[in-house]
Amino acid sequence: MLKLPRPSRWQATAFVAVPAEVVLNLPVWDLHSRAPIAATAAGVAIAVAAAAFGGMLPGLAAVAVGWPLNLSYVADEPADALFALPAWVVGVGAAAWAAETVRRRAGAHRLAESRLGGITEVASDAIVGVDADGVVVAWNAGAERLYGYSSAEILDRSLAEVVGGRNADSLMESMRSGESLTLDDVDQTRRDGSIASASLSLIPAPAGFGESQGAVVVAREVGERRRLANRLGEVEARHRALTEHVPVATYLRSTEPDGPPTFVGRQIEQLIGYSADDLLADPGLFLRLVHPQDRERVTAERAVVPPPEGSRSSYRLVARDGRVVWVRDEAVVVLGEDGRPHGVQGYLSDMSERNELQTAADAAAAEARDRRRKVEFVAEAAAVLASSLDFRSTVTDVARLAVRDLADSCVVDILEEDGTFTRLAAEQAAHALVGAEPEAGPDAEVIDIVRRQAPELSPVRMCLPLISRGGRAVGALTLTGGARASGFLPADLPWAQAVARTIALAIDNSRLHAEVEARSDANKVLTHVGDGVFLVDRAGVIRLWNPAAEAITGIEGEAVLGRPAASGFPRWPDLIERVPVGRAGDLVEAEALPLETETEERWISISGVEFFGGTVYAFRDITEAHRLDELKAEFIATASHELRTPLAAVYGAAQTLRRHDFALDEAGRERFIALIVDESERLARIVNQILLANQLEVGRVDLVMEPFDANELLERVVEAARTHAPPQITLDVEAAEDTPPVAADKDRVRQVLVNLVENAIKYSPGGGRIELGVRADDGSVLFHVSDEGLGIPDAEREAIFEKFYRLDPDMTQGVGGTGLGLYICNELVERMGGRIWVESAEGEGSSFWFQLPSVGSSRFAPKPGAVGRIVRDA
């Protein structure tokens, strides 16, 4: 059987409308003659209905059939039918347009409802629909999960029963006003009575549910999210705290062969000088920093994912300052929950040898005397250059000092403003080998050094550019050796550069002073002067105060400029009387004076130059040099006092023995002779202490390392000490029987013990018990000397082993000494591979402890600088 296709909507409408028009307009009814207008209106209505139901095509088809029939059989006049035709067409068009609009809106509404329903069903948030009265009319699966109610249990119930009365009132008020509303972090009660924290959002819906106005309420649980965020924050904080405080540089990178780092710990900057930001900003920087000889191997290792047990590798990195740093790289793979590698985590630790400081200390100890001589030369040269603004004479004096102490010849060439060179000074030492007469000016090599501003060094010559402020070359300093026992070394560059800088500063200062006389605007020039410079006019008012003056005195320029010097400068009336002042061109020797600042006392070297506008004062900070002078003076005074006492006793006893008018019996003579012997021994000990301290400083102390019995040595020291100990002093020995032999210099250990015992007796003026002890201590032998004397204040405990230090420098308690005993003990113990320390409380006595290696101990490590023989126990 043939199945016909289903007619479309417009076809069915046309099939009904066209026959209806035919039947209505055929002259088979008497309606045409009785009511033609009604018949015409009925035809128009049929056409309009066809257009409204089926669209434009059925409506036009009805017009095409109905209007001709109406014209032929119904209308009384053709003109009436013609006038009615627009009504037919307009009605059909309007009906078709209105029907299409309604159908389109209905389709869109149905599509929106379909989509909203789908979203509501799959949304994870709770979506609740309410009508205008606040009654729940929609409830999705998300709402069931959040609140625990099924849709059957909650539909047709009040919104207040779901979200709470106060929250429901706010939501309903917002719905009535037609505005959206969001309530953050509100407590919601679930069906089981538990509380959930959620955010509620209301969206007004004009026709969302039924026929009445309503709204959609969306509830989203935020408690779990907050807990996850807090947990994540805690994890991140712990990770950050761990990575920032471990003593290694941690990192994270991807598993790709050239995978860039995603995290680098801040310790990387201490390791190689590059910050974590540098490595993260340039992903390829790390591999470029790997030493070229290790880069290929490291690249191959990073191309492979580390095994589960991790990987370890050692290679070199080139630091920012050019250092080569050996690092140990340990890395493990980070696996995700799915077991797949998500990244590589590791750390870098420094494996470089850390003996640079020790090596430098050894070299410094071996050359201490030479270094001191050079430091003194630098200080003396600085004082000479600061003594006058006439740099031509002062530079010549410095050249003479150089050939006297350090070089065979010294030449200073200066670069004039017009680009020519002038030989300022050319001095030759008396002991230097006689050579060719020096040229009148610098050679091409010196000129090139000035142009390049780079020093050159060889064993027989140093040539340094004179660099003034602002990086401008003003000449060259050339020092030549040859007759010296040793040539110039790289370590000589710093002091020579310091002299060169000081000469350049002197030249610059002199030139700047000339500009001060020639120009009124001196502030622009003196801003960069390293010395403090200030100008006092003839009325006594400060008119210039440069930055160096601010830095040295701590007084801002705003506080003194325009004010009388007496009110702005500390203790100006006392200071001005002692400051040497000369005229331009005069040789004025700077005076060292104390200056009270807000925080401390500073010493300055100051002089003045008077000109027509006032007086220019220049000064520099010499606090450190003054402290060194005071230290030397204090030592000389102390040594003189200590030496004078036994000398006076020896002299007095000798004078008594020489007297012929005073008869002495044999016992009296023996007493005076014993006094001479004792004081001579005391004098010898002081001299030996001074000599030994000097030998220790220059590293020329012989050590004979041999095993010996510590208990026996302790008994002999105590036995000798008892012979000259005061009667109120008691000496006891506490020695362990199982003490192993000591591997050290026996005579030096005896000297340490004697010094400590004498120190204990000296600082026990009221008497008391002094205990000497020795025992084994983990591969070493531990000695101690304890007393019940004055004790040591906490603030001074760290300084007692320093050279020249005395606990009672003013001898207020009758305690004297050179301040070398404990210094010698400390140096000797360290050179024998041990250490020394003190335990004390003021007024409660002191206990000095020192530890030395025993025979066979691996801890034997004499301090470098101890020159001598080492004899081990076979």
Number of helices: 29
Tally of DSSP β-strands: 28
The CATH architecture assignment of the largest domain turns out to be 2-Layer Sandwich
CATH class categorisation of the largest domain: Alpha Beta
The fraction of residues assigned to DSSP E strands is 15-25%
Oligomer: single chain
CATH superfamily of the largest domain: Histidine kinase-like ATPase, C-terminal domain
Shape: elongated
Q: State the low-pLDDT regions, or none.
A: 1-5, 208-212, 355-359, 864-874
Radius of gyration computed on alpha carbons: 53 Å
Description:
It is a single chain. By secondary structure, this protein is of the alpha+beta class. It folds into 7 domains: 9-105; 123-221, 2-Layer Sandwich (Beta-Lactamase); 228-352, Beta-Lactamase; 361-514, Beta-Lactamase; 519-621, 2-Layer Sandwich (Beta-Lactamase); 627-681, Orthogonal Bundle (Helix Hairpins), CATH 1.10.287.130; 699-853, Histidine kinase-like ATPase, C-terminal domain (Heat Shock Protein 90). The chain has 29 helices and 28 strands. The strands form 6 sheets. Strands 16, 17, 18, 19, 20 and 21 form a 6-stranded mixed beta sheet that branches. It has a 5-stranded antiparallel beta sheet with strand order 2-1-5-4-3. It has a 5-stranded antiparallel beta sheet with strand order 7-6-10-9-8. A hairpin with a 4-residue loop joins strand 1 (126-131) and strand 2 (136-139). Helix 4 packs antiparallel against helix 5 (78-122), helix 26 (666-698) packs across helix 29 and helix 28 packs antiparallel against helix 29 (821-831). It is elongated, with a radius of gyration of 53 Å. Residues 1-5, 208-212, 355-359 and 864-874 have low confidence and may be disordered.
